[in-house]
User: What shape does this take?
Amino acid sequence: MLIPDALAGAIQAWADFKADHRVVSRGLGALHLSGILLGGGTAIVIDRAVRRAASGADALRTHVLDEVALAHRVVIPALVLVFVTGALWTLSELEEFLASPVYWLKMGLIALLLINGVVMMRAERAARDGASNDAWARLRTTGTISLVLWFAVLIAGKFL
Ligand code: HEM
Assistant: This one.
C-alpha cells in the first residue's frame, strides 16, 4: 500500500508504543468494550421498546419516541468512542487487520448497522410527524435488524 513515509513512521511509532506498554493496549481494549456496553446496551433496550410500541397504544408510542430521542444522546457519543478506539487498535496492527477477511466482515456489518440507524432515525421522524402505521412498521423492522446486527458485530469482533 502507498503510505507517505511520515505517516508510515507515525503508525509504526504508535504500534511500537502500544506493543511496549501493556497498560495502553489493555486500556484501549477496555475503552472499546466500555463504548460497546454503553452504546450497544442502550440501543438494545430501545430496539426492544420500539418493537413493543409498534403494536402498542398511542400513549406508549409517544413515550417510546421520547425515549428514542434521549437514547441518541448516549448511543452516538458511545459509538464515537468505539470508532476511535477501534481505529487506534486497527492502526497498531494495520497489515494484519487489512489482510483479515473477518475484519472486513466486521466492517461490513458495522456499515449495515449505521445505514440501518439512519433508516431508523428517518422512520422515527416520520412517526413523530404523524405518518403512523407505515413509519411504525419501519421502526419495528429496523429495531429487529439493529438487535441482530449488534450481536453479529460483537461476535465478529471476538473472532478477530
Ligand atoms: C458496533 C461496534 C463494534 C463492536 C460491537 C465491536 C466489538 C468488538 C469486540 C467484542 C472485540 C473483542 C475485544 C476483546 O476481545 O477484548 C473487538 C475488538 C476489536 N475491534 Fe471492535 N467492535 C466495534 C467497532 C469497531 C470499529 C468501528 C473498529 C475499527 C475502526 C473496530 C476494530 C477492532 C479491533 C482492531 C479489535 C481488536 C481485535 C484483536 O486484536 O483482538 N471495532 N471489537
In short: Residues 5-158 form one domain. The radius of gyration is 19 Å. Residues 29, 32-33, 36, 40, 82-83, 86-87, 89-90, 97, 110, 113, 153-154, 157-158, 160 surround protoporphyrin IX containing FE (CB under 6 Å).
